[in-house]
Inverse folding.
C-alpha cells in the first residue's frame, strides 16, 4: 500500500508538471497580449507595462519562472488586477467556491441517494416514475436556465429570496439549488440502477431469509455496494463544483474562483491562467487519489485487485 | 402505469410553462430593500461609531449601485478603466471637476491663472481642502501623484495623458529624467505646471482621475494604501468605509470634504454583479437603484419612465485597410461607406436609440465659439446607394478589376457585432452586388490582427479619453497606434500637429474642422453610429451626472 501511495504521488507531480507545461505552451501560442486594448496607448507605455510584468523576457526564462512559481506556490502579481497576487485571488475565491461547492454536493448527494433508493425500492411504481422524472428534468435543464428561472420566480415575482450576491444564508439557497440539481439527478439515476442490480443479488436474498429488518438490509448491505459507482463520479463532481462554477457564480454574483478561470484567458492574464490551471489540476488529481483510496474501504475486492496488479 | 407517466410529464410541462411566464407582481420591492437595510444596519453595528445609523435604517439616503466587477485598482494612475474610475471619481477629487453641463469647474483648486501663451497654469488650492484623515491637501500631493503617473516604473496605462506636461513624455519613455518634468509646488497651496504646447482643454484633462492627488505622506509610508478601506484616504465627496473584495463596497459622505454640505447622499453601496440579467432582476426587485438594459428586454424597457439617456463621446465604425486590395482605392472605399443605411442599423439592429454617425467626432463637444463641433462640421457622410454603385464602378475601372477581389469583413466575436455584420453583408450583396464573407475572432486576437494590418475591413470603436475633438482625430495620423488602416496623409498630419501647437482657440478648431473633412474625403474608415449611455434608474434618484467623456458623478445625487 505504501509503495502504491508513493507511486501515485510521483505520478501526481508528473501530471501537474505536464499540465503546467502544456498550459504554458498553449497560452503562448494564442495571439494577443494582456495589454491589447481597443484604445492602446503609445509604445512607451506598452513597453513600460511589459517590462513591469517581465513579459519582455524570452519564453524560456518565463517558463523557468513559472516552474519556480509552481514549486514555491507563489505566482506573483496578477497582470490585470495589479493590487492582487495570484495567491490573493486564489485564497479569496477558493473558500467561497468551496463553501458553495460543499453545500451543493452535500445536498446533491443526500437528496440524490434518497431519491435513487426510494425509486429502486418502488421499482416501476408511481414514486419511481416521479423520482426519475425529476432526475431527467434535472439532467436536461442546464443550471444557468434553472438559475434564471429560480431568480425570476422566487426573487423577482414572489420576493421571498434575495436575487444575488453571497452575503447571508438566505443568499445561498438559490445558487445551491441551481448547482445541486444536476449532480443530484445524476446521483439519483446511478443509485437507482445499481440498487436495482444489488437488490437481486443472492446475499440480499440471504439477508432477507435470515430475517434482518428491511432497514438494515438496505442501508448496511445493499446501499454500501450500490454506492460504488456514485463514489467514482463523486470525484469529478466534487472537483468541478468545489473549484468554482463560472456560470452560476456569474449569475448570482458570487465572488468565487470560477471567474478567474474564464476571464484570465480572455484577458491573457498569464500568471492567473497558470495559477488557476495548476491549482485546479492539483485539486482534481488529489481528489481522484482520495477516491481511489476510498474504494478500498467500501469494497475490499478493490484492494486485493490492486495488490495483485502491483 | 404508462398513463401515469404521461400524466406526470404533462404536469411537469404545465409547471415549467407557468414558471416561464413572468407575472407582474409589483409589491415585492419592499421585501428586497428591507433585506438590504437590515444588512446595512448589521454592518454598521460592527463598525461601532456610526453617525448615519438613523439614515441607514430609513434607507433614504443610501444609493445602491452596481460596479459590475472588482475595481482594477484604486491607485489613480493604475486603474485606467470605468470599473475603477467610476467609483474612484467619487472618492478623490482633482483640481477641477466636471459639472452637470460637462464643463470643468473649480474643485480642489479654488482658482487658477493661465499665462498669455497658454502654456503655464498656476493653480491655487483651497485652504479648506483636506484629506479624510485630516491632513491638508497640498501642492506637493499633486506633484507626487503626477510624477508617479509619468514614472515608467509605475507602468501606468494612462501615462500618455500626462504627455501634455513639459518633460512628461521624455520621462515616461525613459529619455528624460524626473527633474525635467515641469510640475512644481511653488508653496504649500500653489501648483505650477508648464505644458508642452498651449492645450485649450487642459482644465478638462485635469478633472480626469489620472490627475487625482495622492496623500504623499500616507503613500510614502504605505505604498498599498489604496488596496483596503482601512488605509484609503480620500479627498472627494465620499470616503471608502468598507471594501469586501470582489463582493461589495460602501462609501460614506466624507465630512472632511470642502463641499460636504452640498453632498446629499449619506451612503453609496456598490454591488459587483457582472451579469446584465441578474443586475436587471436586482433592479426589478429593488435591490439596486440603477441597471443596464438586457438586450432582449430592450423593446419593452426603452419606453418605461425609468430610462435615462446620456451622450457618450464614442464612435462605432469600420476601418478599411488601405494597404490591401480592393481598399487601396478611394472610390471603392467610399462606395462601401455610402451604401450603408445607418438609420436602419440604429433602428432595427442595435435598438438603443443611438445617433447615426455622419462624422467621426461625436456630438457633445464644443468649439471655441461655443458651437457644437459636430453640427458645425455637418454631415460628412451621405447615405446614397445610387452614387455608391457609380463610385464602385468607377473605382473598379480605375483599378482595372473585372471582378472585385474577395472582401472579408472581420469583427470580434459578439452577438451584437455579428448582427450588424450580417446586415452589412446583406446590404453589400443587394445594393452593390458584392459578396462579402464574414469572419470573427476572439477580442485579443482580433486587436492583434487589426494592429498588424492583417484584416481587410474590420469593426472598430473609439471612446474618447478627453473631451476634445483632437482626441478623436489624432488617432489617424501616420503611424499612430490607433490608426490601424495603413492610411497616411501629410496634410492631415500637419493639421493635427498645427492644432496642437496653436494657442488661438478659433484657429485651432479651424485646423480640426479641416482635418475631419480630409478624413472623410479619403475615407479610410466609415462610422456607423455614436455611442450613448442608457440606464434604468430608480425615479426617486436625481442628480446623478453621466458625462460624455468622464466618469460617474454622485456628488450632486439625491434619493428621495
Amino acid at each position: 500500500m505504501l509503495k502504491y501511495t508513493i507511486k501515485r504521488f510521483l505520478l501526481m507531480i508528473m501530471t501537474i508538471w505536464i499540465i503546467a507545461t502544456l498550459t504554458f505552451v498553449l497560452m503562448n501560442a494564442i495571439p494577443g497580449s494582456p495589454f491589447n486594448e481597443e484604445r492602446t496607448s503609445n509604445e512607451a507605455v506598452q513597453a513600460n507595462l511589459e517590462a513591469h510584468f517581465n513579459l519582455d523576457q524570452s519564453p524560456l526564462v518565463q517558463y523557468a519562472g513559472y516552474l519556480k512559481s509552481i514549486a514555491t506556490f507563489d505566482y506573483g502579481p496578477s497582470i490585470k488586477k495589479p493590487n492582487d497576487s495570484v495567491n490573493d485571488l486564489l485564497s479569496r475565491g477558493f473558500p467561497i467556491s468551496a463553501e458553495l461547492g460543499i453545500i451543493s454536493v452535500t445536498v446533491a448527494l443526500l437528496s440524490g441517494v434518497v431519491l435513487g433508493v426510494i425509486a429502486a425500492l418502488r421499482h416501476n411504481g408511481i414514486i419511481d416514475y416521479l423520482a426519475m422524472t425529476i432526475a431527467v428534468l434535472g439532467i436536461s435543464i442546464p443550471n444557468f436556465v434553472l438559475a434564471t428561472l429560480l431568480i425570476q420566480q422566487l426573487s423577482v415575482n414572489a420576493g421571498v429570496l434575495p436575487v444575488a450576491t453571497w452575503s447571508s444564508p438566505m443568499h445561498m439557497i438559490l445558487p445551491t439549488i441551481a448547482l445541486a440539481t444536476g449532480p443530484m439527478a445524476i446521483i439519483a439515476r446511478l443509485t437507482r440502477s445499481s440498487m436495482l442490480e444489488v437488490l437481486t443479488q443472492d446475499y440480499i436474498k440471504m439477508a432477507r431469509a435470515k430475517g434482518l429488518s428491511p432497514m438494515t438490509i438496505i442501508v448496511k448491505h445493499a446501499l454500501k455496494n450500490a454506492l460504488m459507482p456514485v463514489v467514482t463520479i463523486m470525484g469529478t463532481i466534487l472537483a468541478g463544483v468545489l473549484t468554482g462554477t463560472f456560470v452560476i457564480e456569474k449569475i448570482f454574483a458570487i465572488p468565487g474562483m470560477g471567474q478567474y478561470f474564464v476571464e484570465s484567458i480572455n484577458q491573457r492574464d498569464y500568471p492567473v491562467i497558470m495559477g488557476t490551471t495548476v491549482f485546479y489540476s492539483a485539486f482534481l488529481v488529489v481528489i481522484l487519489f482520495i477516491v481511489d483510496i476510498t474504494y478500498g474501504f467500501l469494497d475490499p475486492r478493490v484492494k486485493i485487485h490492486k495488490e495483485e496488479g502491483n | 402505469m404508462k398513463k401515469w407517466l404521461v400524466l406526470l410529464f404533462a404536469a411537469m410541462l404545465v409547471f415549467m410553462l407557468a414558471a416561464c411566464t413572468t407575472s407582474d407582481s409589483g409589491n415585492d420591492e419592499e421585501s428586497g430593500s428591507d433585506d438590504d437595510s437590515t444588512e446595512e444596519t448589521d454592518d454598521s453595528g460592527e463598525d461601532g461609531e456610526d453617525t448615519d445609523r438613523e439614515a441607514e435604517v430609513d434607507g433614504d439616503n443610501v444609493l445602491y449601485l452596481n460596479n459590475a466587477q472588482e475595481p482594477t485598482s484604486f491607485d489613480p494612475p493604475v486603474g485606467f478603466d470605468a470599473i475603477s474610475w467610476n467609483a474612484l471619481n467619487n472618492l478623490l477629487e482633482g483640481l477641477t471637476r466636471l459639472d452637470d453641463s460637462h464643463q470643468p469647474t473649480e474643485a480642489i483648486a479654488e482658482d487658477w491663472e493661465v499665462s498669455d501663451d497658454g502654456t503655464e497654469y498656476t493653480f491655487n488650492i483651497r485652504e479648506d481642502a483636506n484629506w479624510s484623515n485630516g491632513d491638508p491637501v497640498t501642492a506637493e500631493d499633486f506633484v507626487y501623484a503626477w510624477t508617479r503617473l509619468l514614472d515608467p516604473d509605475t507602468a501606468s496605462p494612462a501615462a500618455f495623458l500626462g504627455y501634455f506636461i513639459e518633460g512628461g513624455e521624455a520621462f515616461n519613455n525613459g529619455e528624460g529624467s524626473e527633474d525635467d518634468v515641469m510640475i512644481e509646488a511653488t508653496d504649500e497651496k500653489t501648483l505650477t505646471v508648464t505644458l508642452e504646447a498651449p492645450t485649450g482643454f487642459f482644465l478638462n484633462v485635469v478633472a480626469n482621475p489620472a490627475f487625482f492627488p495622492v496623500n504623499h505622506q500616507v503613500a510614502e509610508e504605505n505604498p498599498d494604501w489604496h488596496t483596503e478601506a482601512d488605509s484609503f484616504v480620500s479627498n472627494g465627496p465620499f470616503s471608502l468605509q468598507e471594501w469586501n473584495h470582489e463582493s461589495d463596497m460602501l462609501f460614506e459622505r466624507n465630512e472632511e470634504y470642502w463641499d460636504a454640505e452640498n453632498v446629499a447622499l449619506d451612503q453609496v453601496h456598490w454591488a459587483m454583479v457582472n451579469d446584465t440579467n441578474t443586475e436587471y432582476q436586482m433592479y426589478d426587485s429593488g435591490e439596486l437603484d440603477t441597471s443596464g438594459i438586457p438586450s432582449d428586454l430592450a423593446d419593452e424597457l426603452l419606453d418605461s419612465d425609468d430610462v435615462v439617456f446620456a451622450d457618450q463621446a464614442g464612435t462605432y465604425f469600420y476601418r478599411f485597410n488601405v494597404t490591401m486590395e480592393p481598399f487601396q482605392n478611394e472610390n471603392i472605399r467610399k462606395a462601401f461607406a455610402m451604401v450603408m443605411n445607418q438609420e436602419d442599423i440604429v433602428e432595427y439592429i442595435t435598438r438603443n436609440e443611438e445617433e447615426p454617425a455622419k462624422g467621426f467626432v461625436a456630438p457633445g463637444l464644443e468649439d471655441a465659439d461655443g458651437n457644437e463641433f459636430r453640427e458645425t462640421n455637418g454631415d460628412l457622410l451621405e447615405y446614397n446607394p445610387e452614387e455608391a454603385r457609380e463610385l464602385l464602378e468607377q473605382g473598379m475601372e480605375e483599378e482595372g478589376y473585372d471582378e472585385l477581389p474577395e472582401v472579408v469583413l472581420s469583427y470580434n466575436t459578439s452577438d451584437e457585432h455579428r448582427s450588424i455584420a450580417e446586415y452589412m453583408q446583406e446590404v453589400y450583396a443587394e445594393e452593390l452586388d458584392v459578396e462579402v464573407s464574414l469572419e470573427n475572432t476572439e477580442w485579443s486576437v482580433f486587436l492583434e490582427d487589426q494592429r498588424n494590418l492583417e484584416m481587410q475591413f474590420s469593426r472598430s470603436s473609439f471612446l474618447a479619453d478627453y473631451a476634445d475633438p483632437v482626441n478623436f482625430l489624432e488617432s489617424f495620423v501616420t503611424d499612430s497606434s490607433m490608426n490601424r488602416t495603413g492610411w497616411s496623409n501629410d496634410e492631415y498630419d500637419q493639421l493635427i500637429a498645427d492644432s496642437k501647437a496653436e494657442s488661438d482657440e478659433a484657429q485651432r478648431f479651424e485646423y480640426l474642422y479641416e482635418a475631419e473633412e480630409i478624413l472623410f474625403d479619403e475615407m479610410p474608415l466609415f462610422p456607423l453610429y455614436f455611442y450613448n449611455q442608457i440606464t434604468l434608474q430608480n425615479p426617486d434618484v436625481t442628480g446623478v451626472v453621466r458625462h460624455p467623456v468622464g466618469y460617474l458623478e454622485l456628488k450632486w445625487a439625491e434619493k428621495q
Summary: The mean pLDDT of chain B is 86. Chain B has two domains: 42-273, 311-533. The first helix of chain B runs from residue 2 to 20. Chain B touches chain A through 72 residues (CB under 8 Å).
